[in-house]
Amino acid sequence: MISIIYLIVTSLLVGHTLGTLHHHNRKPPPQPPVTRFLDFILPDSDDGGWDVLADDSSLRLAAPGPCTVDVRHARDLTQQQFLETYAYNAPVIIVGASDNKDFRALTRRSSLLSWLGESKVRLSSANTYSYDKRDVTFSTYCHQHMKPQSLQTLANETFYLFGDHSHPQWLSLLEDYNIPPYSLPGHSPMLSFGVAGPGSGVPFHFHGPGFAETIWGRKRWFLAPPDAAPIFNPNRTTLQWLLEDYPKGPPLESMLECTLNPGELVYFPDRWWHATLNIDPCVFVSTFLSP
Ligand SMILES: O=C(O)CCC(=O)C(=O)O
């Protein structure tokens, strides 16, 4: 009986994936469809204690979208193939890259709050290029800043925990993160840790290449090549852009997007534009690759 249900669910998912690819008129990725973490596990089965929206989904303003980025399983993607196909050319979603089970356990809401609740964190305003900074305790951030993002709040008024962690305990937490098993010649990894509320995100920006993994929650990514700058207002949030501008039509033919499930990685090549939107409360780590 279980195997019959499995077969039905698998064929529905394959059909959905092929339908999505057809809809976007893109060539299918070279590998058969990759089974992704949440294909069989509902997002609310374990949210690490982060999902304040679990009982009221009307507060969840954004939803996952289609996936037009190649999705590859790390098992079938060697370092050589990564270099030849993606490293300098195109983004890719990688499933099954590193085992971050222990890091996932350490970053449950209750663990982080009891361990680091009173430590200071530096927030950045969530507009393009993040100008403004604010220092608060991690507990204050969780209780006051992680509420669902309102459509009325601008990006420069939204404060986001991502990147600045000078506190030794935060650095020691990151020692337990297993970085993605792919590299760029002549580049070294540098980690940034983030926690953010539902509906928040970062508007379009670009920088050097890197990976970003979602540890808890789902995050929607939008990407565009270096020579195709998207049209956006740097002080408007990704939520405002998604709900008010995106429905008028994609800003660019060449824009790609995908929603990352927990444990999945996106790789963005050098100078690719990208914007993010946290569907759920999210815990995430970026591995920036610097020359
Ligand atoms: O994950 C996010 O919300 C922001 C990540 C990002 O923009 C980056 O890694 O450059």
UniProtKB/TrEMBL annotation:
Q: Does the keyword Signal apply?
A: yes
Residues crossing the lipid bilayer are none
> Pfam families, alphabetically?
Cupin_8
Record carries keyword Magnesium = no
- What is an example of a GO molecular function annotated in this UniProt entry? cis-regulatory region sequence-specific DNA binding
Boundaries of every JmjC domain copy: 168-291
InterPro entries assigned: Cupin_8, JmjC_dom, JMJD6_ArgDemeth/LysHydrox
For this record, an example GO cellular component is:
nucleus
Check the UniProt entry and state the signal peptide residues, or none.
1-19
Cite the entry's keywords alphabetically: Signal
Record Gene3D superfamilies: Cupin
Can you tell which superkingdom this protein's organism belongs to? Eukaryota
Supply the PANTHER family for this chain: ARGININE DEMETHYLASE AND LYSYL-HYDROXYLASE JMJD, JMJC DOMAIN-CONTAINING PROTEIN 8
Q: What is this protein called?
A: JmjC domain-containing protein 8-like
Q: Quick one: which gene encodes this?
A: LOC108665080
